[in-house]
Amino acid sequence: MKHTLLMALGIVSVAAVLFTNATDNIELEYYGVGDYAEDFNLKNVDGKMVSLKDYSDAKGFIVVFTCNTCPYAKMYEKRIMDLDQKYSSKGYPVIAIMPNDENKVPGDSFDEMKKRSDEKNYSFPYLKDETQDVAKAFGATKTPHVFVLNNVDDKYKVEFIGAIDDNPKSASSVSTKYVEDAVDALLDGKKVPKTTANAVGCSIKWSES
Which residue in 42, 146, 191, 203 has its CB near the most CB atoms, within 10 A? Predict the structure, then answer.
């Protein structure tokens, strides 16, 4: 069942999934665990459009809302790259999506996205959510914010939502790898042990228009 949130234009604070502001409140639906996510069609840094349906052999996806500029996104960048290296060949590729309004964060512009992808040699697509509609549909609030999808009869079931692991500051000190545990369980045909974990990161910078 989709959940609802109150989206405010010109967001100034985030509490759980409730966005607040004095004016222009908009109620939106977003995906919860067990829902089926709709496909999207977003521009990759190589100029090509990318959709989930392009991955005909995928068993699922690790969809990560992230960006260039957030300190938490930078701390998790190598771990996101490692997730793709570990799971893409097993049928769960990473799909990275940049949701921020570049007018508020010039360092997250499309040109800067391309530079970052080239510099770090990303093995996964890095997509621009120009309208922010995809981030809103998923209920993403932070960078990074992860959604593990399972391909069930060519539909994309949300199996996990939240953080990559339990220690953003130190990969070597992680005790629970939420995303890896989720994907490993799905690959073994088991239930995901923990379906949600609070995402830790920077608030998504929403457009005011």
Answer: 146
How many Å apart are CA 162 and CA 140, to the nearest integer?
Answer: 9
Query: Any residues with CB less than 8 A from the CB of 79 and at least 6 apart, and which?
Result: 164, 165, 171
Whether a cis peptide bond, with omega within 30° of 0, leads into 144 is yes
Q: What is the pTM of this model?
A: 0.88
Pick from 63, 57, 18: which is nearest to 40 by CA? Answer: 63
Distance CA 162, CA 165 (A): 9
Q: With beta carbons less than 8 A apart as the criterion, state whether 149 and 60 touch.
A: yes
* Exposure class string for 7-28: b at 16+ Cβ within 10 A, else e: bbeebeeeeebebeeeeeeeeb
Q: What percent of the chain has pLDDT over 70?
A: 87
Spatial contact of 62 and 97, defined as CB atoms under 8 Å apart: no
What are 191-206's pLDDT values in tens digits?
A: 999 999 999 999 999 9
CATH superfamily of 33-203: Glutaredoxin (3.40.30.10)
